[in-house]
Write a structure and sequence with these properties.
The complex is a heterodimer of chains A (269) and B (260).
Chain A (H helix, E strand, L loop, with lengths): L3 E11 L5 E11 L3 E5 L6 H8 L7 E6 L2 E2 L5 H8 L2 E4 L11 H12 L4 H14 L15 H12 L6 E5 L7 H18 L2 E6 L2 H7 L2 E6 L2 E6 L1 H6 L3 H8 L15 H6 L5
Parallel strand pairs in A: 3-8, 3-9, 6-7, 7-8
Antiparallel strand pairs in A: 1-2, 1-4, 4-5, 9-10
Chain B lengths: L1 H30 L4 H16 L3 H25 L6 H39 L2 H7 L4 H39 L4 H11 L2 H28 L5 H31 L3
Classes of the chains: A alpha/beta (269), B mainly alpha (260).
Chain lengths: 269, 260
């Protein structure tokens, strides 16, 4: 069994509208570790997760998951592989016509032949982990954004996957649930040996639990290493990102023509 | 000149791609291996959502269209002393044309738009993506039941529309305007053929059902996941659905009458 669960080599990706998101990116995600992918917003971190999940195909290079090139797999093989993955979406992606309990039970009902009582116990256990057992009968529209994401996490771990991808798990959480979530991600990783990928721009929280960090800026990997090594990295770009400085080599502004030119050009119809 | 040519080419490629995607989705719906145990409850749910919930608009429209048809027809026929032919006039126009066409257009507005909006919103809120990532095919779980639900509902709605329209005509022609009930029904029976009229009408409704639900699920599935995108996808469903019904009706009628 290979040491790395995900291997991305020489990968480029371009959207249909021509926007280039990645250029010759190499990333490896070691098995059983928490790997963080960080970068300013708009660098395509979510796109990266979709590439790993096989929802998008790279325009160049390859994305290997569990030794298989995911974008070359047949529909059936891809779906088999996805049973071993969990993904926590930014908005949660809960099914709005089902209550919290049914949402968490959904993957179990789809992929297993477990009895209803077994499913009941499993669902309650997963909900207990995220502190929402009491909310089992609520509908998704009755949950706050943070709660919805915790339910989605319970659903993502329902099948005890080998790999979990967290898309901005800490955004919108209050300090207490943030602390619980950070601990939960760590516990899941340690006790069940689940490989975790966290995509985030919450530098402090992510650095605290990650074993390895990749920083992506401007279509490329700016640097990678253990959180300590990243924190000590002396390059100006890295320091600007970690310390959250507005001025520096990483642009805050979206690429644009100079301000003066824009003003002088007048109003375009 | 070259620019225009390029634009025309781009437009053509874009549309062809769109048609290709619609075709692939249709094939996936048709040939996706069904799972009876899990799929059947979903199908029943959709027959309820698309069929049963459309009943009100279909019954009320059917009743009024039948009543208006009888009112108009009775006075026109009476001028030629042919008011006893009211039954055949109403039955033939409803069973052959009005029933399938009006039901399909109402269905596109009532159920088609709801299907598109629902699928589009599921896409916008990442429900379809999360389903995919849970190794559950959204085409099988979301799209197929909605398509087959519409496919089953449509002919049933047409039968109900036909029946209520004829009953509406009976109410006006016989109960109100004083036509003879026996003549009304017996003339209708002798001039309406089961195969040539009733069955052909049902056949039309099956084709319209396929067209409208296919357009509805495809528009939802490919909607731009924003509020404006979903709004325009819903509008497109109603517009394309209605136009497709009218166009197909002409083609089918020509085929059934035997001119082709």
């Amino acid at each position: 069994m290979s040491k790395n669960l995900v291997e991305i080599s020489n990968m480029s990706f371009q959207h249909e509208n021509g926007k280039i998101v990645f250029q010759d990116v190499d990333i490896v995600i070691p098995r059983g570790k928490i790997t963080a992918i960080m970068g300013p917003s708009g660098t395509g971190k979510t796109t990266l997760l979709r590439l790993i999940g096989g929802q998008l195909a790279p325009t160049k290079g390859e994305v290997k998951v569990a030794g298989e090139i995911i974008h070359e797999l047949s529909h059936t093989r891809l779906y088999q592989l996805r049973k071993r993955m969990g993904m926590l979406f930014q908005q949660g992606g809960l099914f709005t016509h089902m209550n919290v309990y049914q949402n968490v039970a959904f993957p179990l009902r789809e992929h297993t032949n477990l009895s209803e009582s077994m499913i009941h116990s499993l669902v309650l256990m997963k909900l207990q982990m995220v502190g929402l057992r009491g909310a089992a009968q609520l509908m998704p529209n009755e949950l706050s954004g943070g709660m919805a994401r915790r339910v989605a996490l319970a659903r993502a771990i329902a099948l005890d996957p080998d790999l979990i991808m967290y898309d901005e798990p800490f955004t919108g959480q209050d300090p207490i649930s943030m602390g619980v979530l950070v601990k939960l991600v760590k516990t899941l990783n340690q006790s069940l040996n689940i490989t975790s990928i966290i995509v985030s721009h919450d530098v402090q929280e992510t650095m605290r639990i990650a074993d390895y960090v990749y920083v992506i800026v401007n279509k490329k990997v700016l640097g990678h290493g253990t959180p300590d090594a990243i924190a000590k990295d002396n390059s100006r770009q890295m320091q600007q990102f970690i310390q959250g400085l507005p001025d520096g080599p990483v642009p805050f502004d979206y690429p644009a023509t100079p301000l003066v030119e824009d003003f002088l050009q007048g109003v375009e119809t | 000149m070259i620019d225009r040519l390029v634009l025309t080419g781009q437009w053509g490629i874009h549309n062809l791609r769109h048609f290709g995607r619609a075709g692939i989705l249709f094939l996936r719906i048709l040939f996706g291996s069904p799972n009876l145990r899990r799929g059947f409850p979903l199908l029943v749910q959709q027959v309820y959502a698309e069929g049963v919930l459309s009943l009100l608009i279909i019954v009320v429209s059917g009743l009024f269209i039948g009543m208006v048809l009888a009112l108009q027809g009775y006075h026109t026929l009476a001028k030629f002393g042919a008011s006893q032919e009211l039954g055949p006039l109403v039955a033939l126009s409803v069973v052959r044309e009005l029933g399938p066409v009006v039901t399909a257009i109402l269905f596109a507005g009532r159920a088609g738009s709801a299907v598109t909006a629902e699928i589009g919103l599921m896409k916008a809120t990442e429900q379809l993506s999360s389903m995919e990532m849970m190794a559950v095919d959204p085409v099988r779980k979301v799209i197929s039941p909605r398509f087959w639900g519409g496919f089953i509902s449509m002919p049933l709605l047409v039968i109900i529309f036909n029946a209520t329209a004829i009953y509406g005509a009976y109410l006006v022609g016989v109960k109100w305007l004083g036509g003879d009930a026996g003549t009304f029904w017996s003339n209708m029976q002798s001039s309406v053929e089961f195969h040539g009229d009733v069955l052909n009408g049902i056949l039309k409704s099956i084709v319209f059902g396929i067209a409208v639900t296919w357009i509805a699920v495809f528009q939802g599935y490919t909607a731009v996941p924003t509020s404006a995108g979903i709004a325009s996808a819903t509008t497109r469903t109603v517009v394309y659905g209605s136009l497709a019904v009218l166009g197909l009706d002409f083609v089918l009628t020509a085929m059934m009458i035997g001119e082709w």
